[in-house]
């Protein structure tokens, strides 16, 4: 086990170069046991090796300035231009289709306008016909009787007879 140092949150924050809240979080995540001394300051045992840096050990450090991203793949210019041409053609076709759709929409809205006008005219004619009173039948003329239904015709052909047994 490595050597331990007894530090407060403020001292740990100063040595790590972070805020006091960050030092509290680090101590909590690491699970270092905390004890409050008689003055009310919380102190805990911190391993010395968390403060070890290559500068303290006089180790050689190599700076890696090369980026970690791989180089961009080479693009095929001819294929890219061909794809652009295909996209242009598709765009032109969609523009033509859009223009045709707009024209069809205009035609349909004109047709709807004509049909609405015809409907309104027909409704006005119906209302006008409803306002005209029906001619009354002259009082001297009797109304024609309603036609008989099929079962009423049976009674006129076969009159009701009395069922008597002799």
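Q: What amino acid sequence fits the structure above?
A:
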């Amino acid at each position: 086990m490595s050597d331990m140092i007894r530090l407060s949150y403020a001292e740990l924050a100063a040595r790590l170069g972070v805020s006091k809240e960050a030092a509290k979080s680090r101590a909590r995540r690491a699970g270092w046991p905390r004890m409050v001394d008689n003055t009310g300051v919380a102190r805990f045992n911190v391993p010395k090796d968390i403060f070890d840096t290559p500068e303290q050990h006089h180790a050689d450090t190599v700076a890696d300035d090369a980026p970690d991203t791989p180089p961009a793949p080479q693009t095929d210019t001819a294929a890219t231009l061909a794809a652009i041409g295909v996209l242009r053609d598709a765009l032109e076709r969609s523009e033509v289709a859009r223009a045709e759709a707009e024209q069809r929409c205009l035609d349909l809205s004109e047709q709807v306008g004509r049909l609405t006008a015809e409907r309104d005219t027909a409704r006005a004619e119906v209302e006008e016909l409803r306002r005209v009173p029906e001619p009354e039948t002259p009082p001297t003329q009797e109304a024609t009787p309603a036609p008989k239904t099929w079962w009423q015709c049976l009674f006129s052909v076969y009159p009701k007879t009395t069922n008597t047994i002799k």
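Q: And what stands out in the fold?
A: Residues 124 and 130 are 10 Å apart (CA to CA).
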